[in-house]
Design a protein that fits this description.
This protein is 19% helix and 29% strand. The protein contains 8 helices and 22 strands. Strands 1-19-16-21-14-13 form a 6-stranded antiparallel sheet. It has a 6-stranded antiparallel sheet with strand order 2-3-10-5-8-12. The longest helix has 14 residues. The radius of gyration is 23 Å and the shape is globular. The N and C termini lie far apart (64 Å).
């Protein structure tokens, strides 16, 4: 009479795993901790792109290739932990785009949602769904998914802005589509400022048109934003983790301006030091004013200058210190997705 042994046999187990692999099967007990970790483990790492080093490379690109040749003359901000993947974090794409005087970045559309945050130059513009908007430093310009858009330049100096897109998320879902317009520039059908007047002035049409979940306001002027922050600085309590932090919203429903990309503006008053904070969202920060320092737990402070970009992967403790003047930072993140899926978790020290 024989009995089955409960003692593991590593040789037999290895052979068994090989048989499973040949049948496209795998033992969960060998992979469980990797599939369901105890806490988030992003592949991206915190990283700083210094404007004084990046800008000359952009200008070199302007001499090396035209906007039409490139379709989009952009230097991708590629995270060291995600080399070759064209990602600034595990879920976000970012790049710096250059338009030279007289150039046109041809019209196209795609299912990926995009934002443009203006950094330098005068005379650049974006046209979205038949409306043109001139871009000024600090302006946030939206490109809703599957809308025709092109870029151009009526000024006489280089124009540079930051592109932010949900490319990694859309690609993961295998939902990416793109289409080229039959013309380099789309035909304009609305006067400049139409969307802001119609939807962004505390007014809404009595009969609302059918629209997507993205804000119908596609240019949030920095002049208005800065004025609002000045008033808030004199009248509101300052969050010890975030400073004075406001989000850009869709005026139709009060939701985030873009369903997949959370955009915020943050004012850190002179001498303000935040306390450590982390959340599951991954974020990209851009300095507009001041020279704040960012401190990632366990690392030395990194002093940021205007137009510098800093990536903060999810679930990473970090804080900011303002300098001898007020500091302003724009950021975009994947927070709306975390909120809608019930996955957002914050830790405030």
């Amino acid at each position: 009479m024989t009995t089955e042994s409960n003692t593991p046999n590593t040789i037999e187990r290895s052979a068994y795993y090989a048989e499973l692999s040949a049948l496209q099967l795998a033992p969960l007990w060998e992979r469980l901790k990797g599939l369901v970790p105890t806490d988030p483990r992003p592949n991206a790492v915190p990283y700083h792109w210094a404007w004084n080093l990046v800008r000359p490379q952009l200008l070199t690109a302007g001499r090396a290739i035209t906007a039409e040749e490139a379709e989009r003359r952009v230097l991708v901000l590629e995270n060291p932990g995600l080399e070759g993947k064209s990602q600034i974090t595990d879920t976000l794409y970012a790049g710096l785009q250059l338009i030279m005087p007289g150039e046109v970045a041809p019209a196209h559309r795609h299912t990926q949602s995009a934002l443009r945050f203006m950094l330098e130059g005068v005379g650049g513009f974006t046209a979205v769904s038949g409306e043109k908007t001139t871009m000024h430093r600090g302006d946030l310009v939206l490109t809703p998914y599957w809308t025709w858009h092109d870029h151009g330049h009526d000024g006489d100096e280089p124009v540079i802005w930051l592109d932010g897109l949900d490319v990694p998320l859309v690609n993961f879902l295998k939902a990416g589509f793109r289409e080229e317009h039959q013309a380099n520039r789309q035909v304009l059908s609305k006067p400049e400022g139409d969307s802001l007047a119609r939807f962004g002035s505390g007014l809404l049409p009595v009969v609302m048109p059918s629209m997507s979940g993205t804000s119908p306001v596609f240019n949030y002027p920095y002049a208005r934003t800065r004025e609002a922050l000045d008033v808030l600085q004199r009248s509101t309590d300052i969050d010890k983790h975030l400073g004075i932090c406001m989000r850009y919203v869709n005026p139709v429903n009060g939701d985030w301006a873009i369903p997949t990309l959370g955009t915020t503006i943050r004012l850190l008053p002179k001498g303000f030091n935040s306390t450590f904070y982390r959340s599951t969202e991954s974020a990209v920060f851009v300095v507009i004013e001041g020279e704040p320092a960012v401190i990632v737990e366990g690392s030395a402070p990194v002093v940021l200058g205007p137009n510098d970009v800093f990536a903060v992967p999810g679930w990473l403790r970090h804080r900011f210190e303002s300098s001898s003047s007020d500091s302003l930072l724009f950021s975009f993140s994947d927070r709306p997705v975390h909120e809608k899926l019930g996955l957002l978790r914050e830790e405030r020290s």
